[in-house]
Amino acid sequence: MGTLSLEKENILANGVIRMKFIAIILMISAIVFSGISPYKSTMRHVIKTEDGSKTESNIRGKNEAPLLLNVVLKRKYLDGEVSEETVKETIWALEDFWAKYEAWQLVDMDEEKLVFEMVVDDISPLLKLNGFFGITEDGTLSIFNGTPDQADIIQSFFQIDIKKLEGNKQLQLKKGIPVKTKEIYTEVLETMKQYSLEKQNEKKPK
What we know:
alpha+beta; four-stranded mixed beta sheet; Alpha-Beta Plaits; 10 strands
């Protein structure tokens, strides 16, 4: 029941966001069509012909313009990093606009911008470029921007029982293990979990 309720809430929330978006578009359209907008061009819509091809068609007049909006694209990666990109979109038809961002989740909007979000099933470009697994002085497994001796921590995980860790693994973590791929990221985390203090405490008899 809980899962179904959550799904219904998400559907309703998405519907409200889309309705809000349409209301904003209509409001902006009214401004554009009233001649207040500084943008002047011929407004065209892409339409399908009988043979299935597409063509452009004038729908109003020479003084009408497309909708111009800022679109913010947020990407969330497995390691917690969030990248943000802003693009300027010229919207001729809502159908084409939604199709372009079909894989994205609309999370916020106002009269000036739309904010889309995507969860990326991969590590961030920063980790691939310069990320290293290592341990802090208190034995916390962490990812550093550069080698661990630079002490620039990107992400922290759990404390490791150093005494239980094999000598070669200790040496690797002190030098830094490069995080080049999602597979390395996942493998190191899974391997080190067995040495976490929390895991060791669970094994102790009560």
